[in-house]
Design goal:
With 257 residues, this protein is α/β, with parallel strands linked by helices. Helices cover 46% and strands 21% of the residues. An eight-stranded mixed beta barrel has the order 1-2-4-5-6-7-8-9. The radius of gyration is 18 Å and the shape is globular. The two termini are 34 Å apart. 34% of the residues are buried. It binds ligand C2E and magnesium ion (2 copies). One magnesium ion binds next to loops.
Length: 257
């Protein structure tokens, strides 16, 4: 699929909760297979990690993002990075070289990592993350709350962002424990000076609750779906300088019903 050009990259906006300004987009790989149709990354990324193809896929996504973001001045782009990629000794140099070749500065990227590698090999992880950070890459801890979610990891590792997993948001408003947990994750982010993003916002109610909880950033179908680069360009053109998304509640209702 990599060689046959069946992969592409979609981008989903991340917005400031208070005024819905688009501040960045997350790059999400897509595979349209002539044989299987669209295959979810949740299904093929684990296989790519096992077979080592994740390295080629990772470079493809990064290279594509570097080209696409030339059209989006000032917008940051989040890139998902598998533990297997980070374990590869040349990862930091390879990514830095690709960015340089495309004349994009590393501080326009946020690398999204999960806890896997930090848990299995904290000493090596610390060194690698420090290196990426010193090169200018931003670091984001993805799916927070699903793994070990230790305060220790947040203190020890130089993360700038923390992403609250969508499973918490899904229960917001119905499960009081979720509200309390989200609230404490936001407080943790504030205390450690780490920006907090909540993922998976599907309804106006969830957005409203996250506003009340003072969650700084949100991402989810209610605000914008993952879309091809050309649609991001068109969206930014439509939004103008303010880059404020207009919440479309009629569409949100349609999506969740
Ligand atoms: P993730 O990094 O946590 O990405 C967020 C996932 O949530 C995406 O699924 C996105 O489409 C989905 N999502 C966004 N808003 C909503 C919402 O409101 N409701 C629901 N139910 N889902 C929402 P996607 O694109 O299927 O990706 C799944 C996972 O695959 C990602 O989770 C990430 O772990 C992995 N992945 C995707 N692209 C890449 C990549 O380029 N490299 C690597 N290593 N992993 C990737
Ligand atoms: Mg992610
Ligand atoms: Mg996530």
């Amino acid at each position: 699929a990599v060689e046959a050009g069946e992969l592409s990259v979609a981008y989903q906006p991340i917005v400031r909760t208070s005024d819905l300004t688009v501040i960045s987009v997350e790059a999400l790989v897509r595979w349209d297979s002539p044989e299987f149709g669209r295959v979810s990354p949740a299904d093929f990324i684990p296989v790519a990690e096992e077979t080592g193809l994740i390295h080629d896929i990772g470079k493809f996504v990064f290279q594509t993002a570097c080209q696409d973001m030339a059209e989006w001045p000032g917008l940051k782009v989040s890139i998902n990075v598998s533990p297997a990629q980070l374990r590869e000794p040349n990862f930091a140099n390879d990514f830095a070289a690709i960015a340089r070749r495309n004349a994009v500065v590393p501080n326009r990227f946020k690398l999204e990592l999960t806890e896997g590698l930090l848990v299995r090999n904290p000493t090596i992880a610390k060194r690698k993350l420090a290196r990426l950070k010193s090169m200018g890459f931003g670091l984001s801890l993805d799916d927070f709350g699903t793994g070990f979610s230790s305060i220790g990891y947040l203190r020890q590792f130089p993360f700038d962002w923390l992403k609250i997993d969508k499973s918490f948001v899904a229960e917001l408003g119905t499960n009081p424990t979720s509200n309390a947990l989200i609230q404490s994750m936001i407080a943790l982010g504030d205390a450690l000076d780490i920006a907090v993003v909540a993922e998976g916002i599907e309804t106006a109610e969830q957005l409203q609750l996250l506003r009340l909880l003072q969650c700084e950033y949100v991402q989810g179908f209610h605000l914008a779906r993952p879309m091809p680069a050309s649609e991001v360009t068109a969206l930014l053109a439509r939004l103008g300088d303010s880059r404020k998304i207009v919440e479309d509640s009629s569409r949100a209702i349609e999506r969740t019903s």
